[in-house]
Write a structure and sequence with these properties.
With 286 residues, the chain is an all-alpha fold. It contains 14 helices and no strands.
């Protein structure tokens, strides 16, 4: 009887703890989401509602977004951003997976030394490389184009991406690759037909990470894209908000903020489960 009462008491305590935890997490979620909700709400307000500090608009208006597209030509800036984005989310996973495959599956002299040097580049602060990179791109005549924002993706896609893919590939059973080699499959076929299909979780993680990095990149386009017709969305919003005051009201600035952030938010909501699963798989295998 005493054991039954103890079990019942433990169950009640467990339920109370879960209720408390859910309430705490809900309050934290509301606290974190509220600023974004206010940005969306204010993007549909007129100036009077904003001056009165309302939470919800009295009249929902879409004129702020119409002005962004018609008067400020934000669809053009979106297209400039998408061209750079699409190139990188295709090229970066491919180039980094090729490098990772060479480090993980192929045997060649100096492999570990070269991989160590690649990993060591992550310790170099990005600010140190800004001037040498600009000088190099200026020598190539690329400083007035999007080439500095795209072509580097062809050369490995970053040390971190190579490292993540290499660690994932090393945990793929070597016997699968050896069996294909015995059957006469060349290296490129083993890479395409065996290794890459098994790397889908980590590839998806790199694609979303590349998307986030390119979409939110502000400094690169600011340095290399000096002509207004070549601006990306982030640079256009910066100039319109702070420099030339084209977005001269709060509701227009909020609409621009929503337009800039809505696509990454959608991508995260759609792929958050797959991203978490990919990280868990990599952690378990590692």
């Amino acid at each position: 009887m005493a054991v039954f009462e103890l079990q019942k008491k433990a169950q009640i305590e467990n339920i109370i703890n879960k209720i408390f935890l859910y309430i705490l997490l809900t309050l934290l979620a509301v606290f974190l989401v509220f600023p974004y909700f206010m940005m969306i709400s204010r993007s549909f307000m007129d100036i009077q509602d904003i001056n009165e500090a309302r939470i919800f608009p009295t009249h929902w208006i879409f004129q702020n977004y119409v002005k962004l597209f018609k008067e400020h030509n934000y669809l053009h800036y979106l297209w400039n951003t998408m061209k750079i984005l699409i190139f990188n989310i295709i090229v970066v996973p491919i180039s980094s997976s090729i490098c990772a495959y060479a480090f993980a599956k192929l045997r060649w002299k100096g492999r570990e030394l070269v991989f160590g040097l690649v990993i060591a580049t992550m310790m170099i602060p990005g600010t140190i490389l800004q001037v040498p990179q600009y000088v190099m791109f200026s020598f190539l005549g690329w400083t007035e184009s999007a080439y500095p924002l795209t072509i580097p993706g062809l050369f490995g896609g970053g040390a971190m991406n190579i490292f993540l893919l290499r660690q994932f590939m090393k945990n793929i059973p070597k016997e699968m690759d050896d069996a294909a080699k015995v059957d006469g499959a060349p290296t490129i076929l083993r890479y395409l037909r065996i290794t890459m299909p098994l790397c889908k979780p980590i590839i998806l993680y790199i694609v979303v990470g590349t998307f986030s990095a390119v979409w939110s990149d502000f400094y690169g386009p600011l340095v290399y894209l000096t002509q207004p017709e070549k601006y990306t969305l982030a640079v256009a919003i910066y100039y319109d908000s702070l420099i030339n005051a084209a977005l001269n009201t709060s509701n227009l600035k909020m609409a621009a903020g929503v337009f800039m952030s809505i696509l990454p938010a959608i991508v995260f909501l759609l792929y958050q489960r797959k991203l978490v699963d990919g990280i868990m798989i990599g952690g378990i295998k590692g």
